[in-house]
TrEMBL record, chain A:
Cellular component, GO annotation: membrane
Subcellular location field: Membrane
Mode of membrane association: Multi-pass membrane protein
Annotated Pfam families: MgtE
Residue span(s) of domain SLC41A/MgtE integral membrane: 52-180
SUPFAM superfamilies: MgtE membrane domain-like (SSF161093)
Keywords, ordered alphabetically: Ion transport, Magnesium, Membrane, Transmembrane, Transmembrane helix, Transport
Native organism: Halorubrum lipolyticum DSM 21995
Gene Ontology MF, one: monoatomic cation transmembrane transporter activity
Protein name (record): MgtE integral membrane region
TrEMBL record, chain B:
Species per Swiss-Prot/TrEMBL record: Halorubrum lipolyticum DSM 21995
UniProt keyword list: Ion transport, Magnesium, Membrane, Transmembrane, Transmembrane helix, Transport
Protein family: Belongs to the SLC41A transporter family.
The protein's name in its UniProt record: MgtE integral membrane region
Region (Disordered): 1-33
InterPro entries referenced in this protein's UniProt entry, alphabetically: SLC41_membr_dom, SLC41_membr_dom_sf, SLC41A1-3
Residues spanning the membrane: 124-146, 158-178, 198-218
Compartments where found: Membrane
Topology with respect to the bilayer: Multi-pass membrane protein
SLC41A/MgtE integral membrane domain sequence ranges: 84-214
């Protein structure tokens, strides 16, 4: 009965999910610890400062898109098909706007924070990195989420149970990877 | 981790739509449809989410500033950098498991703020066992990856950092989850809407704080 499990039951049920997210965490940790990333961290002031905010908002933006689509499917408001539906395009457009706005916002507050404590910081560089990382994350997260939710739903999977792990796992791994791409691209342009 | 940040807004929205369903059939059809379109308008979604996301980002700058403070230690010890995302992710996972279990038990009437309550003990026991398993594996894995990335930190130290910070985190998860459930219940909030976003964000940030408190002692 739910709520009456022993510690052993809870442990056994939760362990697989925790282990999957552990593997994802180690993977993103490896990217974070890589030589290129460490060089980037040393060269670009503010990178470590914005990292937790960047990762957390990925979860917020795309977790809510997933939750919204899943509710819409359950209520019969949207159909699990890849066609232009106003609600579907609205939800996608809104999450894209949210993702990009927040990415730029994070770059700006990171810059202000650096300046507030008298540290050097380059606003253009931070905004550039966040725009590249935010854009790539948006494209990947939106496509994967829609594919997973629609295909899963048609096969009888409750999207509510899938979104959380998908968003956290992909969000962290690709968030850090795209941050690295952002550093690289901005470094090449500026 | 923070995917539940908007859960409250969404649940609230669908609740009011359902409440509107008791009108006449024709009325319901048109009102419901208008409400649905409005609920799904770009402007509405952006306007509800942006303040929340902005506040969340400012809050996360706290853990960012801790990372920034330890930049030199982190850059010279890749094993510790590897620990960062795992620590944050696991904190959120353990917190959301504990919170959803506690709120379910609250609804079922089996929850009670008493150290002898069997369900409370099972939750706490499971969190400690999960933390012990995960952070034991993480310690070894982070050390291996760290060595592969050119780090010099010994296995003993990485394992010590991982396990000590992981177990402290487990204590924090249990305490904040119980506190959040108690507070939202007493203040008349639905714990399903409030506890997970609050506790996962608190534990995300505290996870980094604890990690570096331990790092500053051990390394």
């Amino acid at each position: 009965m739910p709520g009456h499990d022993t510690a052993r039951d809870v442990y056994r049920q939760a362990l697989p999910v925790i282990l999957v997210s552990l593997v994802a965490g180690l993977f993103s940790g490896t990217i974070l610890g890589s030589e290129t990333m460490r060089a980037g961290i040393s060269e670009v002031p503010g990178l470590l400062l914005l990292l937790p905010a960047f990762l957390a908002t990925r979860g917020g933006v795309y977790g809510s898109l997933g939750a919204r689509l899943s509710t819409g499917l359950h209520q019969g408001l949207i159909e699990p098909r890849f066609r232009l539906d106003r609600r579907l395009t609205n939800a996608i457009l809104a999450s894209f706007i949210n993702g990009m706005t927040v990415s730029v916002f994070i770059a700006v507050i990171t810059f202000l924070w650096l300046r507030l404590f008298g540290n050097p910081g380059n606003l253009l560089e931070l905004v550039g990195i966040m725009v590249v990382a935010g854009l790539l994350s948006a494209v990947l997260m939106i496509s994967v989420l829609i594919a997973v939710i629609f295909v899963g739903y048609r096969r009888g999977l409750d999207p509510d149970n899938v979104i959380g792990p998908v968003v956290t796992t992909l969000g962290d791994v690709f968030g850090i990877l795209f941050l690295l791409v952002g550093i690289y691209v901005v470094g090449a342009v500026l | 981790m923070s995917s539940s940040g908007s859960g409250g807004e969404r649940a609230g929205g669908s609740g009011s739509e359902r409440a509107g369903g008791s009108e006449s059939a024709a009325d319901r059809e048109s009102t419901a449809d208008r409400e649905y379109v409005d609920e799904w308008s770009v402007r509405r979604i952006v306007r509800t989410m942006i303040p929340l996301l902005a506040a969340l980002s400012v809050l996360q700058l706290v853990s960012g500033s801790v990372l920034e403070t330890y930049q030199e230690v982190l850059v010279s010890n890749p094993a510790l950098l590897v620990l960062v995302p795992v620590q944050i992710g696991t904190a959120g996972n353990l917190a959301s498991i504990t919170c959803s279990r506690l709120t379910t038990q609250l609804y079922l009437g089996t929850y009670e703020l008493d150290p002898s309550n069997p369900d409370l003990r099972a939750n706490a026991g499971a969190v400690f066992a999960l933390a012990g398993t995960v952070f034991g594996i993480v310690g070894v894995a982070a050390w291996v990856i760290g060595v592969a990335l050119g780090g010099t930190l010994g296995l003993g130290r990485v394992l010590l950092v991982s396990l000590v910070s992981g177990m402290l985190l487990a204590v924090l998860v249990v305490v904040t989850s119980v506190a959040a459930v108690e507070v939202s219940y007493r203040m008349g909030f639905n714990p399903d809407d409030t506890t997970i976003p609050v506790v996962t964000n608190v534990c995300d940030i505290a996870g980094v704080l604890i990690l570096f408190a331990v790092v500053s002692v051990v390394v």
